[in-house]
Amino acid sequence: MERHAFHALGTECELLLDVEPSPDAVLALALAEGEIRRLERLLSRFRSDSELSRLNDAGELEAGDDLLAVVRLALEARERTGGRFDPTVHDALVAAGYDRSFEELAVEGAGSPAAPAGGAVRVRGRRIGLDPGVRLDLGGIGKGYAVDRAVAGLATVGPCLVNAGGDLAVAGVPAGGAWPVGLDTPAGELTLGVAQGALATSGRDRRRWRADGEDRHHLIDPATGRPADSDLVTVTVAAPTAVEAEVAAKALFLAGEQAAAAEADALGLPALLVTADGRVRLAGGLA
User: Fold this and answer.
1) Distance of CA 72 to CAs 69, 196, 285, Å?
2) Coil vs helix vs strand at 164
3) Which domain holds residue 19?
């Protein structure tokens, strides 16, 4: 098993490739890291020189392939989730105090009045246009997209896993069977065997800070423009791709326990819900 770890996308990334050591394996891991870093440079709202930041500043842009693809995926997700996933939460995140990368965020700071999401995002050919005052955040879905792209590259060499801070995707089955993935829960570590597809977790347990004397987190409810007041702490979802898992985890988190479990069951979407009172609930056929 070849392993390569590095810091990118605001988190720790790990690449696993189930092949014998070789120059080809080393090159494949380096190329996968390079692809993740390339996409971070394009899609990060924290980089003033990113293509996303140029779009947010100008309000209109002739987009490259990757930004165009991720914006389209984000708009499809907004439609599919009834607005629970919404890429226009940029200003709401800034208003909540999340105005720089999490590593640089002050533990205690100041926020601004809530800024509900919304506004038109138009895609015509390669041109993306934003309504006045609308800016995009592609953090979660961009991370999923980068994971999916890295897995696609590594899969040409052998069975692989790409993990970006708990959001992961696999391709191919390792020699030992399914990829074992450990999830921390109040009941202890739960290990899932992942043979294909992806997992993503959304939660309010880690990216937390204080602003104006109150605890805040990064999962914004687009309807209010404030950190979501959910009875869930984390939601982990399995889906065919990391992009789909990211979207579903955020949407189920905002739905709350009962609606999330019902939706996961109806869609056959394997999900693990951790509630605010410390219970672990499996849904969507996960057992």
Assistant:
1) 5, 24, 29
2) strand
3) 2-283
Report the candidate in 216, 220, 206 with the shortest Cα–Cα distance to residue 108: 216
- Burial state string for 110-139 with b = 16 or more CB within 10 A and e = fewer than 16: ebeeebbbbeebeeeeeebebeeebbbbbb
- Tens digit of pLDDT for each residue in 23-32? 999 999 999 9
Query: How many residues are given for the chain?
Result: 287
CA dist 42 and 51 (Å) reads 5
Report which of 185, 178, 191, 190 is spatially closest to residue 203, judged by C-alpha positions. 185
Residue ranges in the chain whose pLDDT is less than 70:
99-115, 207-217
Quote the number of domains for the chain. Answer: 1
The CATH number of the domain holding residue 38 is: 3.10.520.10
The DSSP letter of residue 49 is: T
